Q: What sequence folds into this?
């Protein structure tokens, strides 16, 4: 019984490893400064799984949150703390990210 369990766990591990192998993950670092989101324009290839690492570096901004309406994502950005935003796999198009009030923004261009 113990062996069956071990085999099952190993199988699961292999499956998970394969899934991540096929997927192309791209981590993008994003800062919030007095200038807004930096960079405010990035491009990635379609089919890429995008993970944003966002750090707000200033208090002189209204972007204390990041909102990605298209993906129904909204996350707080505490100062000087890296926040991980998993956007998932992106299809061809444009993804807009912005502050909660939609004033400061940027684009992820998928092409
Ligand atoms: Cu704002």
A:
């Amino acid at each position: 019984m113990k062996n069956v369990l071990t085999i099952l766990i190993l199988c699961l591990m292999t499956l998970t490893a394969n899934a991540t192998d096929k997927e192309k993950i791209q981590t993008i670092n994003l800062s919030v400064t007095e200038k807004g989101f930096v960079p405010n324009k990035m491009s990635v290839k379609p089919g890429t799984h995008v993970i944003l690492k966002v750090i707000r570096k200033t208090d002189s901004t209204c972007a204390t949150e990041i909102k990605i309406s298209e993906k129904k994502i909204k996350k707080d950005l505490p100062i000087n703390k890296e926040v991980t935003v998993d956007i998932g796999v992106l299809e061809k198009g444009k993804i807009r990210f912005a502050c909660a009030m939609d004033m400061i923004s940027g684009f992820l261009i998928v092409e």
User: Anything to note?
Assistant: The helical segments are 2-22. The first strand starts at residue 24 and ends at 33. The two ends are 50 Å apart (CA to CA).
